[in-house]
Structures are given as structure tokens and as C-alpha cells.
Amino acid sequence: MTVAEVIAARRRHIQESAPCVGCGGSLADCKAARGTDPTAPPWFGCCARGVQASIPCQHEPDAQAALALLAEIEAGEVRTVEQVEAERAERKARAAARGMSWFEYLNQDRQWQPNGRPLVEIADMDPAWRYNASRWLEKRAAKIGARYMLAAHLWLTAVIASPLGPSESSADSLERDIEQQCFEIATNPVTWIRVTALYRALVAGLPDCSVQLEALAAHARHWSTCPARKGGDECRCDQLRADDDERKAAASGVPEWTI
């Protein structure tokens, strides 16, 4: 496919996957549902929204998806629909395994979600693992921040709509707090991620001394490549440390452990 065809396919996908404001179903599913029930009006689609007012379902395209497409066009690297859907499926799988939104996840200080595996207690993670996990959050702070903002606004909407929700003044205070967080995320996502409860729990107790921190980083570098981590072979610490010493002059940063 040409770049123009990929862009056109992405635009169609954004329109067809636009969620219903009533039930969250996609526009494509809504169209497929029309006419399947002989007792329903011809415009009736994915949900009962607007039945009394005799108006069809309302679908609003995902603004974040549209912004992501524009950013990719400007950068000259546009993902295909299949790539976008694969990443979305992975995010959903991680969220399902976590059982929490990014808003809830970052505001707790007890558990970490390794890639594709069950939640683990942060208290059970060794320092090198916690160090690498904190680096993972820093590197992805901008993307995580965008998902956090969306989850935070959805959470606030649900709380305010609840019969047991906060008073008007409390709701206004919550909204101001979230807006302030959104501003901090947009301004400096790495600084923001470092003050979240999850990040603070990961780095708690890690050495402040640069020499000790470098020693911990060296162990993290080793553990990121050690075949013993996945149980596939015996640990080759001495060999890997020797290789690290040879590459130290040319190495930049700390290779990330595949979490």
C-alpha cells in the first residue's frame, strides 16, 4: 500500500470505530445492527439512545486517534490499521490483566504489572527490577500520560454522575486537581510520572549515591540480557560483566529490561 492509501484507511477506520456516546459500540457495529429487529425503527442501531426523541445513536470519532494520525503524518511514519489494532489489543490485554485503568494504576503503590504476566507485589521485587521498572515508566511517560488523562476524565465523569457522588464544591475541587495534573503531564511528562504513587514506590529505598546507583544500573544491564532470567540457560555473569566493561565507554544510558 502507498502512504496515501494507508492514511485513507486509517481515516476510514477512525470513522468506522467511532464509539457511541450511549453504549460505546462502534459505528460499524451500529450500522450492522440496523434493520435486524423488525419491531425497532429503521434508524435504530447499537443501543436505545434517543428512542423517545426518535433520533439515531450518536457516534463521536476518537479525538486521540485523530491526533495520533496527524502526528504520524507529520513525522512521516504512518502505522497501518492492523498495527494500530494490534497495539490497541495489547493495551486492552494489559489493562484487563491489571484490572485497573492507568489513573487507578499510577495512583496505587502496591503492585507492578510485568508484560504479559500477573501482577506482582512491589515489595517482592528486587532493587534491579524496580530500577528498570522506573526507567520503563520514564521512557514512556508521554504516552502513559495521554492515557492517564483520558482515564482521569472518565473517572471524574462517573464519580460526578453517581447518586453518591461528591458535592458540587468537592466536584469542582476534583476537576481542578485533574486539570492541574493534565497541565503538568503536557508540560513535562517525566517530572509528572516521578511524583506518581507507583513510581515513588518503585524507587523507594534505591541508593541516592551515584556510585551505588551505577552499581545497581550495571546489575540491571546484566539482568536484562542474562539467559537465566527466562530459565533458558545458566547465568553467565562473569562473561556478561566483561562484555559490559568493554562496551562501557561507548554505551549511552541503561538498556531497558524487557518488562
Automatic annotation (TrEMBL):
Name used for this protein in its record: Uncharacterized protein
Species per Swiss-Prot/TrEMBL record: Micromonospora craterilacus
Lineage: Bacteria, Bacillati, Actinomycetota, Actinomycetes, Micromonosporales
